[in-house]
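Fold this complex.
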Amino acid sequence: MEARANSPFSLLRPEVLAGLSTLELVARQAVEGFFQGMHRSPRFGFSQEFAEYKAYAEGDDPRFVDWNVFARTDRTYIRRYQGETNTRLMIALDVSASMGYSSGPVSKLQYAKFVAASLAYMALHQHDPVGLIAFDAKVRSYRPPSSRTGSLGAILHALDGLEPGSKTDLSESLHQLREHCQRRGLVVVISDLYCEPEALTRAVQPMAYRGHDIMIFQIMDRAELQPHWDESVLLEDVESGQQLEVSPDYLRTTYRDRMRNHLEHMQKVAGKLGADHVLLASDEPLDKALRGYLMFRKRA
Amino acid sequence: MWIAPLFLIGLLGIGVPLWLHRFAKQTDQKHPFASAMFLEASEVRRSRRRELRYWLLLIARLLLVALIVLAFAGPRWRVPVQSGTAGATLHVIVVDTSMSMRYAGVWDRARERAAALIGAVHGADRMMLVAADHRLRLLHEAAFANEAGAFRGALQNLEPGESRLDFGAIASGATGWGAGPGEHVLVHLVSDLQASASPLRFADLQLPPGVQLDLVDAGAGKSQNLRVTAVNAAERNANEALVRLDGDAAALAGRTLVLEVNGAERGRRALNARATLPDVERFEIGELGPGEHRLAARLEPADDLPTDDAYYALLRRVQPKVLLVAASLAGDDATYLRAALQSLAEPRFDVEVITAQQLATRSLSEFAAVVVSDAGLLNAAPTATLQKYVEAGGAALLTLGPRMLQQRVVPLSGAELAKGRALAAASAPSRVADVEQSHPVLREPGAWRSIRFFRHVPVVAPSGAQVLLSFENGTPLLFEQSRQKGRLLVFASPLDREWNDLAIHPLFVRFIAESTAYLAGARAAPATATVGSAFESDLARRGGGQVFDPRGKRTMMLDAAQAAGPRLVPELAGYYEVRGGGRSDFIAVNVDARESQLAPLDEATRQRWLALQSATRAPVAQPGAPAAPGPGAAVAAGRDRFIPIWFWLLLAAAALAFLEPLVANYHLHVQRERRT
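Structure:
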């Protein structure tokens, strides 16, 4: 979706966000901009919406006892709100060398950081614990899920320090993630998914079997989706260093077909695993990613 | 093959584009890409095409450098000259383009005859076209009849000039026409066959052995012509110009003679139809100021040969200032010398008399010459002044008087006085024995021998001096010396009546006046020349300059660095202008008077000329024997034609220079696009 300049979503455009100084500002700008676009308050959103009554049990917070119901029924119930259904959010961010590629002002990794920071900001305001794991061929950085004060700053600081690394090994990295995520929760994988569909299956399937909800954000650059050169061009793989002289005809036809097939395969694999697959181009506004997360939270 | 092969060293310059292209290949940009997972290097053909484009650019650049270098080296294309077939004939068509061919109808007739000759050549015969006037010009190389069109085109563009043809020049020039082995040469002379075109010696008309002659008469038959043969000033009256006319008296009727001075008409007179020719017409031209004046006489209306109806002359009016240095302003020597100098009508001297003491403080640059009545008057200071003047280009006449006997060396000259027997003989009467008659000052040798010298100053002529008059005992009386840029005449006797009787002799006035005029340069004749004859210009002496023909077109240019320029060969009658050395002068150029004499060769002379050729016919080759080489065989063998092709190379280089930026810019554009 193309955000227009006069639309509230224009604040979510990656090139605008890239001009902000810190990831916190980026996240706040993205999230608040997103809600303004939805005509909803970020402070009093769905988390104030009534969800259900629950019989008071020992250990429940007595502040949430509905005394009106107690007066009428002489039974103690507590009110539960949607926002109070806590979900552990684990963000798995691919920091391989291919994520460092950019044909415009924002690289894929930078865009992925925006997405991750925005999700973390939004989740922590719902009091959802947020964790982060950054990986390429192996895990580069890990922060366990936490909703304590200051955890947002820690997450953002960790995101800020990430740089493109080496090759990607999705299954190995997510295998390590499984070891750290024993409790059920939402796992968001942000990657360009330059791997075979079988590798994605091998990486994600065990987590799905454990009951994790999985959301896959596949980040691609516009030049990867629709490459355009007038002349034959010498292209170098940023991960392997392999050089190939490629004709514009090939890039216009065969390459795009292959890329389209790959994306479709990834979507099918995700569908089989019960995961959401969202394709994001690095020149798109972030609302698509945030909407995906919200939809998930509504379902939860 | 090459005119300047050293320029070929410049071919090393092709290394520059080679280096540039190697460098460009190294900087061929790679573009990072996220993953090669879906890429294939499948389009090799397109990649090759891109490289091929670069190769085209490289080739264009290499060619550009090579073409420029080759053009400067001056390559010539070697074209073998077609040789003739043994037994065939080489027809050399020589067309007279002298001034007389301009006579009404003659040139058209000559062209028709020449065209007919061209059309008659066929088979194995070849032909050659030559124009003849003061020089022979090859208009078309020897070729077969299939090139007759080119011959006709060359003939159509040909026009007669204003110079003279001498038939002897054709005879001597015929040796250069190369014929093939065993090929006969037949010269067709298409001309009006003027009698005045004959050389001085009849034998000079003889063509080389084996060359046959065919006289093709294109003349007008009976002709009438009136011409102006000279224009000059009258000797006794400087304000009068004389115009001389010659030709056929029948052409006088209805004609008018016009005289122009410096481009303005000064007189006009209808000619007397009954006058006898040659005739002289007098025109009053009035007092002309100092300088050079252009006098042109013209006949109106023009007759059938208009080129000789005008004559161009230059009249020089000079009034040189002469300084006379004497012992006293009223002395005999001063009186005699002043009277002698002022007796001449042309040039008219402006004489000033001073004493030797006054000479020391006088500036001499305004004087054309200085006459010293007795060199013994000169002490150190006047001598230094006079020496500086002479060495800077001035001229002086020194006479040696009694005071000179008290000195040992003649001032300024450096000549020493003789001693011993010569000194004793100087006191005895003597007469002139040897006279250098070729000198312009001494035109009356007999008169000199009648003058009595009672005494003289015996001097020894210094080395380098030219003795012009000497006594019986060999002692010089008059000698000339060069002093750097100036000249000096030393006369070893005073000009009074005590030492000789020269002063009362009629020769005295002429000698003094002529020698002074000679020293002052007043006798230098104005520059005149004849069309077609070489003229030695003085551009080299002026330190460079330019010459313009009567139409204003520059015909010669000489740099200051050039020591001597080529000689000028004027091709038009009129005034040529010479600019250089800070001044502008004219050369009066006239047609050769002999070209105006239109009478043709009589029949007897023609027959004698043809008979002269028949007597030298080439021997007939024996059957089976190798063909005898033709007259020009030695020249023709290995004589190829070289056509310079530098112009075409430069043209190709210019085209490449235009294309190269287009190709380069295209590649640059593509590179820029790929970078973005």
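The domain at 8-40+86-299 of chain A is CATH 3.40.50.410 (Rossmann fold).
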